[in-house]
Each structure stands twice: as C-alpha cells, then as structure tokens.
Amino acid sequence: MGTPCHFALFDLQPGFRLDLDLLATRYRELARSVHPDRFADAPEREQRVALERSASLNDAYQTLKSAPKRARYLLALKGEVPLEVTVQDPEFLMQQMQWREELEDLQDEADLDGVATFKRRLKVAQEELNESFAACWDDAAQREQAERLMRRMQFLDKLSYEVRQLEERLDD
C-alpha cells in the first residue's frame, strides 16, 4: 500500500488552498501521539515505528505548510514532475534578473526601508502566484502552466529567504 498521502495523514482533502491553522493544530495533536518520549519504555520495535511515524509526520507537515512544496506535491500526486526546467519561461527569467539586481542594490545601499518595501511586493507576487496555481493545478489541460507556476513559486520562496537573510544582516 505504501505511505499514506500527506493530506490523508491530517484528515484533509488534497487541495492547494489549505487552512494552515487547522493543519498546525492537527500536526501538534498527531505529533504528541507519536512522540518518541511516549514510547521510551516500549519494546525497541515500537520505539522504531514511533520514530518513523514521527519523522514522516514532520515531513508531511513541512511539505504541506509551504506553498511551493505543497504545489510540487500536488503535481507529483498526479504524475511525474520533471526536475529539469524544460518549460521555457523567458518572461519570468527577466523578472528574476530584475529582482536580483534590485536586491543587490538594496544590499549595496544597506537600505532597510527599501528591503521592507521589496519584501511586501514579493509577498503580493507570491499571493498572486498561489491564486493562479490554485485555479489550475487540478486541470490536466493546464498541467504545463501549473508546473511553470510551481517553479516560479519555488524561486520566489528562495528569494524571500534571501531577503530575510539580508534583513537580518542589515539589522545587526
């Protein structure tokens, strides 16, 4: 049978739009029930099973709470997701270069206010991508578009991580 679907683990329907608070609540409840400490006096096999369940629960939670990872997972449930970016996306490549240059300028100028503004714009772009993905991931005819959006989401996720790093460096 293999491992249960990440969504089933949390008793949720597979979908991109998720109630993240509900996900977190269910994660905490389940995490308590499989916490290795609860099996400290149990036989070794039970301890091992608890540890495996705890690890897979954590993996499922990390996947579902992140929009790009959740997107990739949903696409993977419906078939192979090519690792290589075979989808040409010149429009977005230009956008990426602009964002990168802008971020470098903000770093050179040590412009904390500029970084905050950049971060807000990035968040809006992420929300728009999430909406676009939510609207098309389940439609086989729009598979290529969904994969393209998922890759854009991955890029923005990485970029917002870099923005947070820059913010911390400038804040010190």
UniProtKB/TrEMBL annotation:
Stored SMART domains: DnaJ
UniProt GO BP: [2Fe-2S] cluster assembly; protein complex oligomerization; protein folding
Pfam families, A to Z: DnaJ (PF00226), HSCB_C (PF07743)
InterPro entries: DnaJ_domain, HscB, HscB_C_sf, HscB_oligo_C, J_dom_sf
Signal peptide start-end: none
Listed Gene3D superfamilies: DnaJ domain, HscB, C-terminal domain
Entry GO terms, CC: iron-sulfur cluster transfer complex
GO function terms (MF aspect): ATPase activator activity; protein-folding chaperone binding
Location of the J domain: 5-77
Domain of life assignment: Bacteria
Annotated PROSITE patterns: DNAJ_2
Keyword Phosphoprotein: no
Assembly and interaction partners: Interacts with HscA and stimulates its ATPase activity.
Chain's role: Co-chaperone involved in the maturation of iron-sulfur cluster-containing proteins. Seems to help targeting proteins to be folded toward HscA.
Xref: PANTHER family: IRON-SULFUR CLUSTER CO-CHAPERONE PROTEIN HSCB
Family: Belongs to the HscB family.
UniProt cross-references to HAMAP family, sorted A to Z: HscB
Protein name: Co-chaperone protein HscB homolog
